[in-house]
Amino acid sequence: LKEKLIKKTVKAKMNKLYYEEDKKVDIENLIGLGSIDRASINIEEMKDKSISAKYKDMAISSYPARITYTISEKPMIKEIKFKGNKELSKGSLKGEITLGEKDFFDDLKIREDIIKLVDKYNEKGFIDAKVNYETEIDTQTNKIVLIFNIYEGKKAKVKNVEIQTKAFKTKKIVKLMKNRTKKIYQPKEMENDLKAIEAFYKKNGYSDFKIIDSTVNFNEDRSEVFIKINIEEGKKYKFGAYTFTGNTVYTTNELSELIDFRKGKIYNEEKLNDSIRNIQEKYADKGYLKAAIEPKKNTEKDSMDINFSITENNPVYVNHIDVEGNKATKTHVLRREIVQKEGEVFSLSKIRRSQEKIFNLGFIDDVNPVINPTADPDMVDLVFDVTEGKPGMLTAGAGISSRDGLVGTLALSHMNLFGLAQRLSLNWNFGKRVQDYSISWTTPWFLDKPTSLGVDLYNTRRYKPYSTTYSAYTERREGGRINLGPRFQDDKYRLNISYTYEKITIKDVDAIYKGILTEGTSVNSSISV
To answer: What distance in Å separates the CA atoms of residue 454 and residue 450, rounded to the nearest whole number?
Structure first.
């Protein structure tokens, strides 16, 4: 650890005041470097010197201080070894752990890695696997060999699954489970297996289905697993009539369009939940973010009547909107894509449209809107948490065309130039018969208006052949294009205006084409809408 880094990290500076509370901050910052195990600070008065006059009224001592930092560095991991692993390779185990060679020894991370290794063994059926660690340290170099000692135990497989079913064949229910007969036993999947069984029953008419309990037993050497699940299937229902109460913002007809199930069809809890979600999203689009929809079931008959009891509550307004997670991109570049505005009623469709517009910039990998409550129950703050992707790309290639023969290609593109969402692309096509250069630049917002501005420039020179060995003439095209594209009504309508200018030069005309082609230069320009 270099002394220069320590001096940069701590608050103590030559000829500057150093406060008592700075000691705690310094120790925290030093430990935070990751390579320091312990740190202490000693302050010693230098009584043979005096402090500067400008600090006399502020300092608690009239003498300057010598501050000594004593640190203990963590050893570096020289090598990682695994002992006792017969069923899993060293490579697969290394892939599970966080620590690597040349990392600093960290007891907390090692314990986390042990949990990961045990989980890996459990996943492979070794339910009794145990892992501990030991170290071998070279005191001269302060480097260690980290050794994971592994007890694998026996691999456990599911011998039998017992479920007392009436409505369906046991085999059909067991197929829903990952822990089924002859498969490796995965204890962490048991909860998901039970949820899968419950979801299946409730999707097929059994609204009252319950799992009473489940047990897992082993044979003597713990290589075979016996699973027993006790269930209560209940009665099978069909959907009956549905009604709405408490709705004032939307009519019954408007809400009925959001229902995913129909009367007389087999009860399906998934479709019921989808219907509730549709209603909640409909209300959220008008600001009723806290609207509560409670389905009240009447199960007195074979068909299930459902009343959607709605408590609309007050509409919610947006107080403040912020953007987080952006590092390269300027915040205003992302904010201008947000159609939900501060002070407006919360709108779910506007939030989703904002997500879409930010994502469509092309260099954002993920957009996650977060709704935060405020002191006012009818106001919320919005945060758009973004994850930036790689904005640039360099590609190279080669190909053969009947017109130009063998052609090489080199292209460089950037979708977020200067963090302003501006796009720049450079292309070069080269070969014996062609030299083609082009550059293109586009900004999606011009003069802070939803209007794109683009400029394209190109320079192409081609040797036109009339046989495989001779060129008939040389053609050179130089020019450019300016594109202006205003957008209206949240990009619903677009207008594209282009001006093109091109200069074409013909030269080196072979004698066979004299009289057919004339050497010289022509200019074309056009405007298109």
So the answer is: 13
